[in-house]
Structure prediction request, 262 residues.
Amino acid sequence: MSLRGKRVLITRPREDSLEFISAIEAEGGEAVVMPMISISDPDSWSGCDDALERLESFDGLVFASGNGVRKFFDRAKQQGVPLSTFEDKAIYAVGEKTRRLIEARSIPVHFVPDDYSLTSLATHFTALRVFGKRFLLVRGNIGKEELALRLTRLGAIVESVVVYKTSKPSRSDGDALRRMIDAGKIDIVSFASPSAVRNFLEHVPVETCKKSTVAVIGPTTRDAAVEANVEVDIVAEVSTVEGLTKSMSKYYDSANIKDMTS
Prediction:
């Protein structure tokens, strides 16, 4: 239980944090949830509804997050689109949780990149014959366009649809978070998305981040932190909350062994 006595800040939405909290507590740590993003419906469902009406025109669907899966299929249900409609589509998912959420609806997932990044998925498509194929990218309002650009360059026809939007925390929540870190009450700051990194830094200076260990869920989030000059101490070996928790525990295991032998 290498997280014993450690307080871990969770910056993802509260409704998505139960699994992470349990994993941290199982390692002896204490979870502190202060979301740096909140998830809500898009300003309009018109784009999604239009895509649902034209599902037969798409060869593949790409889901970049669990939020996209939940919002898209909830909307499909509201619009009376049966899940069986998706069974003959090539479904691509970024991330293990995203895959599980799709398969929980009895829809097979065609491919998941090993490191759970959009960059790796784009590389996968490079090896395929996608010229003339039509893809629907299901995303949030601030999702990256890299995959759409790569597919377009390969001759694919790409349509993106926004099914959720992310909002920033209030100033009062941000101020409270900064005070906690300044007071040494947070041992580990964890990030599970680039947007969480960006929103966090609107309230907490980069220098303040050095007072805590910084842990990220994968390469895309790591890159966002590094671009913002945040020093990353831990990158999950497997890009899931379980993988991130194990990597945090391993980090402190190594530190304890070093202390004992020094």
User: Anything to note?
Assistant: The longest helix spans residues 241-261.
